[in-house]
Specification:
By secondary structure, this protein is mainly β. It has four domains: 31 residues; 97 residues, Immunoglobulins (Immunoglobulin-like), CATH 2.60.40; 76 residues, Immunoglobulins (Immunoglobulin-like); 192 residues, Sandwich (Jelly Rolls). It has two helices and 26 strands.
Amino acid sequence: MKKLSINSTAITLLIVAIVITVLQVSCKKSNTNGQPSITGFRLYKVKGVDSVISKDSAINAIRPGDYIVIQGKNLNNMQAVYFDGFPGTFNPTYSSPNNFVVQVPSNIPFASISAADFNTVKVVTDGGTTTLSFPIAAPAPVINGISNEMPNPGDKISIYGNGLFAITSLTLPGNIQVPAASIVSDPGGNSSTFVLPSGFTNQTGPITIVTKYGTSTSISMLNDFADVVCNFDDKNINDQYNSTASIINDASLYPGNHGNYARMSFPSMSAGNWGDGGPGRRLVLNYFQWLPAANANDPITNWAVKFEVYVKQPWIGGCMFVHDWSWNHTCRYEPFLPAWSYKTTGWVTVTLPLSSFKSKPSSGPTAYIDGTGDAYPTVAGLIGNSGNDRLGFFLNNSLVPVTNFDIAIDNIRIVKVVK
């Protein structure tokens, strides 16, 4: 009887093990999709009807940055999706066996895509992998900014924007060509860097680039002398009675300068110090014509203050308030944020949109903090209908003690940034 009991127990355990194994296999099979397939694409819309993406429709290519719906079979339990071999990010909850919502990566490195991956969409599920050939539109180039708009031959210059890869030509003012092989672009196409050739000698005009996917000409111009209101040389409207910055011409202090410049420098400033009248802490310009009176009612987003700055020592605190003499609307220039340290290796161009000149709110989370409220809708609201006003740079309101502050400012100008 004892032997029979032991054999009975062993048989029971064996049956239980078999049942568990069968259930595991069955469960695994039920959680596994069949082989996935792709039958089409749609442009995803939160509301309304999605637009078909097909070679015969108005949207005939997949575009970087768009949210799309991949249509097909067995698309649930998605593990990965690739566009031109570049992985996309997705939320598995936005999926079903026949539809899968994903954002096409906006930074596909088109310049380095392999021939095998070009114009392909690949999905990987727990049931397998499938790849479909379909046009993926590389973005046309757009130039949004230039690192230094007042450069010298031999300077390293960067242009910023989108689609700045696969550059076939780069033309400077005066029809000066930069060899395409010497241009270095980041893989995502957000910037390209080159060295100004020796033939470039203060010519004025935009930069034009041509890529495999289009052409772009910058709105910003190199050597925009016409819009300069103060260069501290032949155009010098520095208010010597209210400014405490020094006007000097010393290339050993700030190499690459163009004549005179304003130096704002002091050894230290305690936290909470508002004494901007101290040495090296204030640069004030006399009244000047910001723009023609006929443009005073332009949208404020159309215009900007520009200047070149050279930050010699790490800038670690202290807000530069940029405004007219009234303090009604202020632009907070704090390039050290969010890292709490900022330094340049040479002269760089700063663009302060007039829309960044904001009020001091009387309520809300930033109550009574200069430059944190609303902007005027038009330029006239900021500087009046005549278009004539003052401009000043005031270093104040240090949240942390500041030491060895040392910057130079030159070529202050008012520029139309929307044309």
